[in-house]
Amino acid sequence: MAGCTSTRHLQSDSEFTSINSSAPPKRPDLHDLHSRFQQFKKGDTSSIYEIKLCADVPYDKNPSKVVYKKEPGHVFLIFSQSVSADVSVSQVFGYYPVRPATVIFGKNVKSQIRNNSGRIYDAEISVKVNQELFFALLDSSIMLAGRKYNLNKFNCYDYGLGIFNRAACTQVIPIQYVKFPFIWGKGGSPTGLYSQLKLFKEKDSFWGPHIQFGQFKAPVTSN
Fold first, then answer.
1. Is 25:149 a contact under the CB 8 Å cutoff?
2. Peptide bond into 181 cis (omega under 30)
3. Looking at the DSSP assignment, which residues form a beta bridge with residue 31?
4. What's the farthest any 2 CA atoms get from each other in the chain?
5. pLDDT 10s per residue in the chain (223 long)?
6. Whose CA is closest to 149, among 113, 118, 110?
7. DSSP-assigned states of every residue in 51-77
8. Cα gap 180→106, rounded to integer Å
9. Residue partners of 3: CB distance under 8 A and separation at least 6
């Protein structure tokens, strides 16, 4: 299944304006992400481009539990370019608050991108896109990561799903916002995404074949 065939839908949202790939961002974590994105190569028309949205729930034995041992789980992205059956390049990354302890007050705090390579997770949804959109979304991932983190309004779920929905085009997954307080909320969390994917797997003929559940390990990527 392919996603969008055009990047025109990005132009109406200033948060997703493509950056100049020759001008790395100054923020250290985004500079690092920009550098890692250089491992993807343009011009290979035979490559297959794929984006995955992944949910790591806090408690594997009970995926509906929002927090377990003070951990909320995580939502993150995997961007992959498959050059051949044996050769592929992947980058795995997610959106975090710089100081996690401060987010419980519901305030906007500084954000950062971290390398999530090798992370174990519980569910994924994938979409294949063309080369043009794939590289546009790499830029968009950097731009959107400049936003402030807010536990209830813009967290790892919002960031990851915001990027994935640009790849999904008209088949978007509705964003479910956190119901305050977070620990009793059902939307806007890794557990919330897991539940959404369960529902799509059972009832949505379009996305169903592209959703998987189990114990997965994200690719290990180099800096």
1. no
2. yes
3. none
4. 49
5. 545 543 333 333 434 343 445 567 889 999 999 999 999 998 888 899 999 999 999 998 998 888 888 888 999 999 999 988 788 999 999 999 998 766 666 688 999 999 999 999 999 999 999 999 999 999 999 999 999 998 888 999 999 999 999 999 888 998 887 665 555 555 688 999 999 999 999 998 889 999 999 999 999 986 5
6. 110
7. EEEEEE-S-TT-TT-S-BTTB--EEEE
8. 9
9. 51, 127, 128, 129, 130, 133, 167, 168, 169
Structural tokens at position 40: 């993807």
- C-alpha 25/C-alpha 30 separation (Å) is 6
- How many alpha carbons lie under 13 Å from residue 182 in its C-beta half-sphere? 23
Token pair, residue 219, equals 């690719």
For tokens 């003929």, the residue is 205
Burial class (CB in 10 A: 0-12, 13-18, 19+), 118: exposed
3-state helix vs strand vs coil in the chain, percent to 5: 30, 25, 45
Q: What are the Cα distances from residue 86, in Å, to 82, 83, 92, 134, 143?
A: 8, 8, 19, 20, 32
Beta bridge partners of 92: 78
Token output for 98: 């710089």
Tokens of 56: 């790591």
Tell me the sheet residues that pair with 212: 124
**Residue 188 in contact with residue 84, Cβ under 8 Å?**
no
The residues spanned by each domain of the chain are: 8-217
